[in-house]
Design goal:
The chain is an alpha/beta fold. It is 27% helix and 14% strand. Helix 8 (214-229) packs parallel to helix 9 and helix 14 packs parallel to helix 17. The chain binds alpha-D-glucopyranose and calcium ion.
């Protein structure tokens, strides 16, 4: 942490609490997962169940497939898995259109399979988090089926119904306003039976719930309790900033390009701002209420805290800070820092600024670092150059695990899976790609089957079934089997970084201070904790070799013990001359303690 005045005051106020929690943390290493605050330095792994492992060979991954690979996740060092939705669903948006929140989709298995997964994961100190979609349901959910029956149905006001503009008995008129779906075109869908429009921020089959209705709040508190009683460790809240809309229904503003002209987005629609339909302040009240409910489960029967992760795409760190809530009314422990993870360009200055934001401007909260998920092209497509992709993925994963905070990554990133989008419109499965083709090819490219082996179907199934998405040709060389135990593989790199994060004091409790801050080619920082020599991390963001001198205030010259460096990269022995190959990484620890 940077010792700005603000953080110093907060730290002083919490000195006693910190002291006590550190003492506990030390005595119980390495079983971090039993701690109440197990999530503070945790490694989270996102699983897209449909694509992870197919146990019954129907081409679709399932819960038993996940259970069969828990030893792999334990070996990797994962503390918790987040499952994207595996509830019953018509699968229009592959599970994000939920038709029953308290069951398992038969495609993925049974409730017994789920309980077994949680139990087996628990034996390996791996916790399970569910995905919670509160903005919308499927149009096949019983609430919506009721809601659309009549204007006086008790479920009518569970959703967002509105008259059209200029509507008459025979004419549906115009949509209520210009609001658009994130998945393209108007966010309003006409329903002929009751002659009104309903609002959907996402797909037509995903009607938005009305969060001004207290019954909706209670329904979700019950759903959370249902899963918490089953022993889940928390939730990742989907599209959480979209729960509320402007009650006055004002139009969104049109976005203009640099010549002052309105422009079209990939769907061919006029691009709009989203200030009327996104990140309205009422969301905080809902999250504080949900958190209060979940915190009731932090008891002897349910050891450790229940953790709330937020899908929080926000414009700046001040908005991110609000997602943590307050001491009296906590919200998320870990809202995603998408400002850092989706820079999508290897630019040292921007990375340094965002890491400083996370260190200085989140108070005493823990950042959640994340670079990838099931909605964005994988790392190769956003950060790679096609030549040094593996080395660049080492750079990114070092930021992920060697910065202060919790880390979240997406299945397959640890082996370097490549984005493999469909090449023909008729092969597209994702509604985003169906609407947006060819400009927007959708998200199939980052959801291809996990690559376990170089064999048929990459070991995703027995190779008799056709996987729901094709296995990328790169599976021949990028797969778990070939990378496991290979010293130079990306998988080994992930394992080693995670081991450092868990076992090196500077990593599991150290502050984070940027070094060499004028450098535009190499990003460097220091991790430092009381009672341990500081650790330095240096990352080359260029394709040319670089050397950096990190001697400076609080860091006298001295010999270094190398903790980790890019395989085959140049050797470093002193802080004065850290050598880095193209996109090279160096992590080293001083051989002596620094007295401050
Ligand atoms: C979130 C999910 C995405 C889904 C959308 C609608 O952004 O991550 O996959 O399509 O919400 O639920
Ligand atoms: Ca299956």
């Amino acid at each position: 942490m940077h010792w700005t005045r603000k953080t110093a005051i907060i730290a002083a106020a919490l000195l006693l609490a910190t002291f006590v929690s550190k003492a506990v943390a030390q005595s119980s290493q390495p079983e971090v997962s039993k701690e109440k605050n197990w999530w503070r330095n945790a490694v989270f792994y996102e699983i897209y169940p449909r694509s992870f492992a197919d146990s019954n060979n129907d081409g679709i991954g399932d819960l038993k497939g996940i259970t069969a690979h828990l030893d792999y996740l334990k070996e990797l060092g994962v503390d918790a898995i987040w499952l994207t939705p595996c509830y019953p669903s018509p699968q229009v948006d592959f599970g994000y259109d939920i038709s029953d929140y308290e069951a398992i989709d038969p495609k993925y298995g049974t409730m017994a399979d789920f309980d077994h997964l949680v139990a087996e994961a628990g034996k390996r100190h791996i916790r399970v988090l569910m995905d919670m979609v509160m903005n919308h349901t499927s149009d096949k959910h019983k609430w919506f089926l009721q809601s659309r029956l009549s204007k006086d149905n008790p479920y009518r006001d569970w959703y967002m119904w509105h008259d059209g503009q200029g509507e008459t008995a025979t004419d549906k008129g115009q949509v209520p306003n210009n609001w658009q779906s994130d998945f393209g075109h108007s966010a309003w869908e006409w329903d002929d039976k009751t002659r009104q429009y309903y609002y959907h921020k996402f797909y037509i089959q995903q009607p938005d719930l009305n969060w001004n209705n207290p019954k909706v709040h209670q329904a979700f508190k019950d759903i959370l309790a249902f899963w918490l009683k089953k022993g889940v460790a928390g939730f990742r809240f989907d599209a959480i900033t979209t729960l509320f809309e402007d009650p006055q229904m004002r139009d969104e503003d049109v976005l203009h390009d640099k010549n002052g002209q309105p422009f079209k987005n990939a769907y061919g629609d006029t691009a709009l701002n989203d200030t009327r339909t996104n990140n309205l302040p009422e969301v905080h009240t809902v999250m504080a209420e949900m958190r209060q409910e979940a915190d009731k489960f932090s008891t002897d029967k349910y050891p450790g805290s229940r953790v709330f992760i937020g899908e929080t795409y926000l414009p700046n760190v001040a908005e991110l800070l609000k997602q943590y809530g307050t001491f009296e009314h906590p919200e998320f422990q870990l809202p995603m820092d998408t400002q850092l993870g989706f820079i999508n360009k290897l630019d040292v200055v921007t990375f340094r600024a965002r890491l400083e934001d996370a260190e200085d401007d989140l108070g005493n909260n823990v950042p959640l670092i994340i670079f990838d998920n099931h909605d964005n092209p994988r790392l190769d497509a956003r950060y790679g150059d096609g030549v040094h992709d593996t080395d660049i993925e080492r750079v990114i994963s070092t930021i992920l695990f060697a910065s202060r905070g919790a880390s979240l990554f997406y299945y397959g990133d640890e082996i370097g899976m490549k984005t493999t989008p469909p090449t023909r419109k008729e092969d597209v499965k994702d509604p985003v790609g169906i609407t947006g083709w060819p400009k927007e090819k959708g998200r199939d490219g980052e959801r291809t089957p996990m690559q376990w082996t170089p064999g048929p179907n990459a070991g995703f199934d027995d190779a008799k079934a056709k996987p729901w998405l094709p296995v990328p040709p790169s599976a021949a060389t990028i797969n778990v089997q070939m990378e496991q135990g290979s010293p130079a593989s990306l998988l080994t790199w992930y394992e080693e970084l995670i081991r450092l994060k868990k076992t090196n004091r500077a990593f599991f409790e150290g502050s984070d201070t940027m070094l060499d801050t004028e450098n535009t080619k190499v990003l460097s920082w220091k991790r430092e904790a009381a009672g341990a020599p500081p650790v330095v991390v240096a990352l080359n963001f260029t394709a040319e070799p670089q050397t950096v001198n990190l001697v400076g205030p609080g860091l006298p010259d001295g010999a270094l013990n190398t903790l980790l460096k890019t395989p085959g990269g140049p050797s470093t022995t002193s802080l004065k001359a850290i050598q880095l190959g193209p996109y090279g990484v160096y992590i080293g620890q001083l051989q002596f303690m620094i007295s401050h």
